[in-house]
Write a structure and sequence with these properties.
Helix content: 25-40%
Number of helices: 13
Distance between the termini: 54 Å
CATH superfamily of the largest domain: Zn peptidases
Largest sheet: 8 strands, mixed
Oligomer: single chain
Number of domains: 2
CATH class of the largest domain: Alpha Beta
CATH architecture of the largest domain: 3-Layer(aba) Sandwich
Radius of gyration: 21 Å
Number of strands: 14
Shape: globular
């Protein structure tokens, strides 16, 4: 593939993102490259991803949201590279608005009472999620322990649950799970909440997961960004945190918390531009939200056997390394556990998850939490990218929540059982 062709794609798409940043996506189209996947294509798209905010609205390795003013130029660039494609969504803004309004309607029709389970018919606010965690701790005082683990930049309380079987032992291994790193990925906290429900309120069916293991779950890491996306439809695709930073005479908001960890920080896949979607922050752990996850990792690193961070989208089970295409020495163990999850999901729903290291399957992403946890001592560490759905892939409509969170739990449970088998309490 010639440099001219690559440059043509980057130049064309450069205009696309500049316009998209200020738009509400009305009339924007979602394109997917359908040319059979090759290593050359993977490498090129990975290079373009490093320049995402200078280039285009890149929502997945082979998916682009395109400004209608540049459709012809974009298609010409793809044709120049002999890439076939199809339009996956004719009007991203319209679909985002419809899904947003559906969720608001469900929140009004079925408000949370402060007690009992959360439903799978809506995406809940951060305050409602916290209220649910509090209600579980009150209802199951011998098995559920609420911990305030920190605050977001805007002062929201970040709360986690420690889930046990109530036998009072403090010598158990630990599985650490978090969700909601990226603000727009609403299905991630929903999946974390469903996992909590299964472990706590469906305890008898999942007693085997808690015999020699405790679970620690933080359902929303990026509370400020999450609430920002729920406030108005024009914010729906926001990804980062919300701490402002002065830059070139203006203000850029937020850092990608999943580039803010102090392990190969500011390496490949991270940006030093504060306005970039992949801005790694002015320094490692500049974000209080990343600091909270760091502290949880270090609190449990001696007993922790699996770290799982829930993201969206792509039906992927990714393990280290994200900073390099090299594989860790213990990659067969990682692959074995991830494959157990993928096979369980395929057997239950038919959905096929791709398993592999982050860089080789997706793209390079240095400074991420899964690499950090693995390096800190968790022998099993994954990013689980939930299935694609919605206008952009990040926004499953409310009717998709139930099947997606149930499918995700199938995979989590299978991976946990494999971890328990491989790392028994000694």
């Amino acid at each position: 593939m010639s440099a001219t062709r690559v440059g043509g794609v980057a130049a064309i798409i450069c205009f696309i993102l500049i316009a998209a940043e200020a738009a509400k996506y009305d009339g924007y189209k979602l394109y997917q490259i359908t040319t059979p996947w090759t290593r050359q294509q993977h490498d090129l798209l990975g290079q373009l991803n490093l320049k995402e905010d200078e280039a285009y609205e890149f929502v997945h390795p082979n998916k682009f949201i395109v400004n209608p003013e540049y459709l012809e130029e974009f298609k010409a660039a793809l044709q120049q590279n002999n890439w076939s494609y199809e339009v996956k969504n004719e009007d991203v803004g319209k679909t985002l608005r419809e899904h947003f309004e559906q969720n608001k309607a469900m929140q009004k029709l079925f408000p949370y009472s402060g007690q009992g389970r959360l439903g799978t018919n809506q995406y809940y606010s951060h305050s409602v999620i916290n209220a649910y965690l509090e209600s579980l701790a009150a209802a199951y005082p011998n098995r559920v322990f609420l911990r305030k683990v920190g605050y977001s930049f805007e002062g929201r309380e970040l709360k986690s649950l420690i889930i046990t079987n109530g036998d009072g032992r403090n010598d158990k291994n630990v599985i650490l799970v978090d969700g909601g790193f990226h603000a727009r990925e609403w299905i991630s906290p929903a999946a974390a909440i469903y996992a909590i429900e299964q472990l706590v309120e469906n305890f008898e069916q999942n007693r085997d997961l808690l015999q020699d293991y405790d679970w620690v779950i933080l359902p929303v890491v990026n509370a400020d960004g999450y609430e920002y996306t729920q406030a108005a439809v024009e914010n729906r695709s926001w990804r980062k945190t919300r701490k402002p930073l002065f830059h070139q005479g203006g203000i850029c908001y937020g850092t990608d918390p999943n580039r803010n960890f102090d392990f190969h920080w500011m390496g490949g896949g991270a940006s030093s531009d504060p306005c970039s979607n992949t801005f790694a922050g002015p320094k490692p752990f500049s974000e209080p939200e990343a600091m909270v996850v760091r502290d949880l990792i270090h609190t449990y690193k001696d007993k922790g056997q699996m770290y799982l961070t829930l993201h969206s989208h792509g039906s992927l089970l990714l393990y280290p390394w994200g900073w390099s295409s090299d594989l860790p020495d213990t990659w067969p163990d990682l692959h074995e556990v991830a494959t157990a999850g993928a096979e369980a999901i395929k057997a239950a729903t038919g959905n096929v998850y791709t398993v592999g290291s982050s860089t080789n399957v997706l793209y390079v992403a240095a400074g991420a939490s899964d690499d950090y946890a693995f390096n800190a001592g968790f022998p099993i560490s994954f990013t689980m990218e939930l299935p694609t759905a919605g206008a952009s892939g990040f926004d499953p409509p409310v009717e998709m929540i139930d099947p997606l969170v149930k499918e995700t739990w199938v995979g989590i449970r299978a991976m946990a059982l494999k971890v328990i088998e491989k790392y028994p309490l000694v």
